Amino acid sequence: MGLLGYWILFTTPLVQSVLSSLHPDCEYVFQLEREERHCLQYITEHDNNHSTLGCLPFWDSLACWPYAVVGETVRTECPDVFSILGNKTGSVSRNCSSIGWSQPFPPYRIACIVEDDIDVPEDSYYATIKYFATVKLIYSIGYGTSLVFLSIAVLILVLFRKLRCARNCIHIQLFVTFMLKAVAVFIKDATLFASDDTDHCTLSTAACKASVVFCHYCVMANFFWLLVEALYLNSLLLSSFHHSHRCLWGFGLLGWGVPLVFIIMWIGSRMYFEDTECWDINEDSPYWWIIKGPIVVSIVVNFILFMNIIKILIQKLNPRLIQFNNSDQYKRLTKSTLLLIPLFGTHYMVFNFLPDYFNITVRICIELCMGSFQGLIVAILYCFLNKEVQKEIRVRWMKWQDNSYGAVLPGAKGSQMDTPF
């Protein structure tokens, strides 16, 4: 992930690949570490080949300087790390005197960075920090608000017996995945940003890796339960869904089990082949497709299923074909389905097939800021605005108020769900 100021949550895997390439801070660090290792290896190999009368080889944190005799001027090209900024055209020199090495001339900052070609003002750095701080604040508010409303929605659907049905059971699972994803945000942030002194480029602890794994699993489970919703709606409209426990168990295995299998495969591949840092940087990693591949497939299948839902609904709502006794049911299904389609990955279909660097600002805004409120919107549409939920809450409230009178309230009997399932 980007490490300039904040390691933003991978609300989706797309954001990971975007941000892992967005800021090169860690690239500088890793490049310098590689060059330092090479320099120390050189010093070790040639330790006994030089006279103590000259200037000994050393690493000055940017470049490796070889042995030189007194009076010699050593010239070296600008270190490779400056090529990350797009410039490596200059050179730096040092004189070897009787008292040791002189200061580099011209200084690295002047010799290796051309101000006309590369603009890296300090104001730009702090502006970027402020931008990511704002993004982090927005998605924290979004996930926090979503977590509260989703928790209330789950309690309502679980506690009210008349609201129990196959469709709401699937809704509950979807709500839980949104809740877990929100929890994963706060766990990850608490793990990675507990201290401002944390070196994110070299952070590699069990807690850090566990938070990343948990985050990946929550994201995958969320996408697969979105797929379950689409499968259920298709089967419902085709009248092919048999409301048996076996079907619900099958949906459960798809939503929770399949992501677990791919996560275990990814963990094994990272442990044995790419156990670097906190497992958060996936740029150019072939093992990243173990997670990203199934999610991309689920998004494509989801999109196809929803297009099929629209087609079926158009056919079923044809005035010449619709039956009187089920017209209200299909109209309610049409309304709820059309409300849900924009939330079920339409924008992911666009961004999944665009380059990672394409319009990064827009992608971050959609993936993180808007995505953090997705759970809130789902909870409002499928629980709090649901007429049957509102009716059941109203009946319970009136019962509680009139309990001492033992009154039988109108509408307290025989509540029907939006669907007969």
TrEMBL record:
Homology family: Belongs to the G-protein coupled receptor 2 family.
Protein name as it appears in the record: Growth hormone-releasing hormone receptor
Superkingdom: Eukaryota
Residues in the signal sequence: 1-17
UniProt record, GO biological process: adenylate cyclase-activating G protein-coupled receptor signaling pathway; cell surface receptor signaling pathway; positive regulation of cell population proliferation; positive regulation of multicellular organism growth; response to insulin
Principal place of residence: membrane
Chain ranges of the G-protein coupled receptors family 2 profile domain: 38-116, 135-386
One Gene Ontology cellular component: plasma membrane
Transmembrane regions listed in the UniProt entry: 137-160, 172-194, 214-235, 247-267, 287-314, 335-354, 360-385
Organism of provenance: Esox lucius (Northern pike)
Gene3D superfamilies: GPCR, family 2, extracellular hormone receptor domain, Rhodopsin 7-helix transmembrane proteins
SUPFAM superfamilies hit by this protein: Family A G protein-coupled receptor-like, Hormone receptor domain
Entry membrane topology: Multi-pass membrane protein
Function: Receptor for GRF, coupled to G proteins which activate adenylyl cyclase. Stimulates somatotroph cell growth, growth hormone gene transcription and growth hormone secretion.
GO MF, one annotated term: peptide hormone binding
Keyword Membrane: yes
Keywords per UniProt: Cell membrane, Disulfide bond, G-protein coupled receptor, Glycoprotein, Membrane, Receptor, Signal, Transducer, Transmembrane, Transmembrane helix
Pfam families with a match to the protein in the record: 7tm_2, HRM
Family matches, as PANTHER family: GROWTH HORMONE-RELEASING HORMONE RECEPTOR (PTHR45620:SF14), PDF RECEPTOR-LIKE PROTEIN-RELATED (PTHR45620)
